[in-house]
User: What shape does this take?
Amino acid sequence: MGETVRKYFLQTPLKDSDVRKLVVGDVVYVSGIIYTLRDRGASKVLETIKKGEILPVDLEGSVIYHAGPLVRRCGVGWEVISAGPTTSTRMESYDPELIALGVRAIVGKGRLLEGTREACRKYGAVYMLYPGGCGALAAKSIKKVLAVYWLELGMPEALWVLEVEDFGPLYVVMDSRGRDFFKDRCVFVRKAHNSLMKELK
Assistant: This one.
């Protein structure tokens, strides 16, 4: 029998206790407000902070989604058509600093590296995967576009403020205890490979 998957339904802004109880392998659904950021948007956040200027959003307890949503005008507002995750590895240079600013969860696709893992451990944050290829499903969880900033960067790179309900399933792959699903799997595969090579000699 396999282990029972632990499932959590969390509300933003995330509290420290929300994050600290999560471990690699947990499944999470998020409701409340999340922000989308990609390379240029993340860079803009850090540049704004370094200039001593005020961000248009509050990062404390926030959830950042690595996504460039497909959005269309709907009357005076916006409607999200698709919001699948983008590959997170290229955001590795930004994520540790964002976590230090109060971000408590990063959502994306693929592996993040040692800098993010250490920031999650130091500040109390998690990295969670959203299934790739499910952009239309993600859009169904988005109830409203509350605001958009920095559209001059382009629609995918802008900072979108989204109200979501039961956004998920999100799979915890880095937790606040320093565990990293991908790193652990690599160690397991390497050991299995070395063992097999010995058997073949």
Summary: Confidence is low (pLDDT under 50) at residues 187-197. The beta strands are 7-11, 27-36, 63-65, 70-74, 77-82, 105-108, 126-129, 142-149, 159-174. The domain at 7-200 is CATH 3.20.130.10 (fumarase).
